[in-house]
Hints:
Blueprint: E1 2-5, H1 14-25, E2 33-36, E3 50-53, H2 58-67, E4 70-74, H3 77-86, E5 90-93, H4 106-114, E6 120-121, H5 125-133, H6 146-157
Parallel strand pairs: 1-2, 1-4, 2-3, 4-5, 5-6
Amino acid sequence: MIVFTLGTIIFPFDRTVDWLNCLLEKEIITEPVLFQHGATSVARLNHPLLTPVVSLTKTEMQKSVQQASLVISHAGQGSTRMLAKMGASFILLPRLKCYGEHVDDHQLLFAQAVERFGISYCTEFSRLVNYIKHPPLPFEGKLLDEPSLAKYLHEFYQAPLMPNKVPPSPVNLSSELYYD
Length: 180
């Protein structure tokens, strides 16, 4: 089984629906696909190997990832950290601003930043085809821990510090519904 996850953000990720449809029709993907699509419409997808779901709980997602031969995921930081921690074979597909998939290109910047840890990402269909035909090995490295990750990303992006700002309330990462 392949798990294809887009997260639950409100922006559609239509490019992935077109790609998935093509991958199934051309039989590049020949095994069942669990497609967690969030706000993205799947009305034009109809294939016997496809199981579309709007969302999954954290437990359901983890169980699906454990059973998957490959995970194709949006480049959310929470999903990426979960997949890396689980030792999954995965590819990141960053949402891009130019297609209205997010408000900016932070997912692309994040994917580029974690590539140095051996995490694969792609923004072109041809590269996705190559990764499906030749999946990356299960991740065995270690991503930076949360404080180190924030420090690394700050240094990577060279973002200016914003003194006298109150930090936002922390997200409850242990929530059953939170995985990104």
